[in-house]
Amino acid sequence: MTITRDQPEIAVRDLTVGYTREPVLRGLSATFPRGRMTAVIGPNGSGKSTLLGVIAGVLRPAAGSVERAADREPAFVAQRSAVSDSLPISVRDAVSMGRWAHRGPWRRLTAQDWAVVEKCLAGLELLPVAARRLGSLSGGQRQRALLAQGLAQESGLLLLDEPGSGLDAEARRLISAALENAKAQGTTVVQVTHDFAEAMRADHCLVLNGGRLIAAGAPGAVLTPRVLEEVWGIRSLS
Ligand SMILES: Nc1ncnc2c1ncn2[C@@H]1O[C@H](COP(=O)(O)OP(=O)(O)OP(=O)(O)O)[C@@H](O)[C@H]1O
């Protein structure tokens, strides 16, 4: 079967997910278009990271299904707070771990693997700190290193949990450019964000509130004054 860009990369149906008996996501159905950028936005605690975790396969739904168009491991870039500071590895080695999906941890990486690692380090302007210990980097540098590791997987499906949160404008610009570049190469990108400007730049937008999908579609059609008022209690984005 030929898969075109307009087919969904992921379809979730009637998802119910929880950590305790009380579900966090309730009967949620949504699609994520292939080769496009989808932004998942919503207030704190609305279930965005939970949805991402289910798509990534790190959380199992109590009910419902997750279908992926292609049988490939997604590259999952967690929030930087989810990664230990004390890992005694260099930035370059951390990024090279992204290639393990291709070789396995005990096989030597090839010259081509290292070329991908160097390209990803360069793309996120990490070459000057590549030899430093990952834990010694600033929060923003570490977030870029985690993204470089995700990009190095060349998975075709990139899942990101708030990649730009807490970063300065230049770091956010670098990350946005890296994601646009991945998309231009055909990668499907799904990012959880609180940044309305980032969501408006996406091709597709899902708005979550209280574990339910409130709206889905083109960002301009979804982030309407009614939705902004109902979900965030604000009247406009300006
Ligand atoms: N590991 C966990 N154990 C128990 N409850 C959890 C766990 N992780 C999240 N939750 C709960 O699930 C709900 C949704 O959390 P989730 O992190 O998915 O929301 P979010 O929209 O990503 O929030 P934020 O914008 O604050 O990151 C919250 O009520 C949260 O307390």
Automatic annotation (TrEMBL):
Matches recorded under SUPFAM superfamilies: P-loop containing nucleoside triphosphate hydrolases
UniProt KW keywords: ATP-binding, Nucleotide-binding, Transport
Residue ranges occupied by any ABC transporter domain in the UniProt entry: 10-235
Keyword Repressor: no
GO terms of molecular function: ATP binding; ATP hydrolysis activity
Keyword Transport: yes
NCBIfam families from the UniProt entry: AztA (NF040873)
Similarity comment: family membership: Belongs to the ABC transporter superfamily.
The name this protein goes by in its record: Zinc/manganese transport system ATP-binding protein
Organism: Saccharopolyspora shandongensis
